[in-house]
UniProtKB/TrEMBL annotation:
The keyword Ribonucleoprotein does not apply. The lineage of its organism: Bacteria, Bacillati, Actinomycetota, Actinomycetes, Streptosporangiales. Binds 1 divalent metal cation per subunit. A divalent metal cation binds at E15, N145, D192. This is SMP-30/gluconolactonase/LRE family protein. Its cofactor is Zn(2+). It comes from the Bacteria. The active site is at D192 (proton donor/acceptor). GO terms for molecular function: metal ion binding. Residues 15-249 form the SMP-30/Gluconolactonase/LRE-like region domain. Keywords: Metal-binding, Zinc.
Amino acid sequence: MTEIRTLVGGRGLVESPRWHDGRVYFSDWSAGEVVAADLDGRAEVVARVKSLPLCTAWLPDGGLVIVDSPNGRLLRREDDGSLTVHADLGLTGWNDIVVDGRGNAYVDRAGFDPMAGEEVKPGFVFLAAPDGTVREVADDIAFPNGMAVTPDGSTLIVADSYRGELVAFAIGAGGGLSDRRVWADLGDGTPDGICTDAEGAVWYADVPHDRCVRVAEGGEVLDVVEVDRGAFACALGGPGGTTLFITAAQWQGMTEPDPVRPGSGRVLVAEVEVPGAGWP
């Protein structure tokens, strides 16, 4: 059994782990905070944004961008800690984000408000290009969640939580998407946050099944890391790229006043064999 330890505890709905410059960054949606922690668990709040969801990504120039969902913006954290507008997305309901090596920011949004108990409607993926333009590049994803770009920069993979699939698109020269296909049918899997590794496999976090699962294209299960609470997202990093960071909390329900049990949010770490590659 894979050894798991708690790096940071006592948090709320934790999401969006991202390894950068010797620390893991993650979001606490309950607190409206972006937090950075070193491998000894020393943590500091680096940004405060009242946004639910609250996801982040790193630009090629080292800038941190933050999804401000209720205001329909991408914010950039400047060196002095201030926040400026990186892109105006318009609309609301934005969820996850990934930025590729050319600075293309892919942001997805649901077609309905699950926390308000609305009827399910398919969601979308939008591109916020380096030139500042924003446009829709994919639709008909039942519930778009985590996203990743393959190590060669050619493919965007999107987790469709409600259909239990990882959906892939070819990334064009201008950042547009084409050639949609099901990258993996996950059966009863419910993919949330995802990441890719150096062998082209995908790790996905699964809230209802309390686990992170590594799958090959086509859906073959290669590895499983079991945790003791809902796993919301995962990312590879650490000095050798083989540390799997998992954000997890005790899930109470989408329409509950507190979707997770207060104080149950943790950043967990486990060592795996294949290092991370690609984005995030």
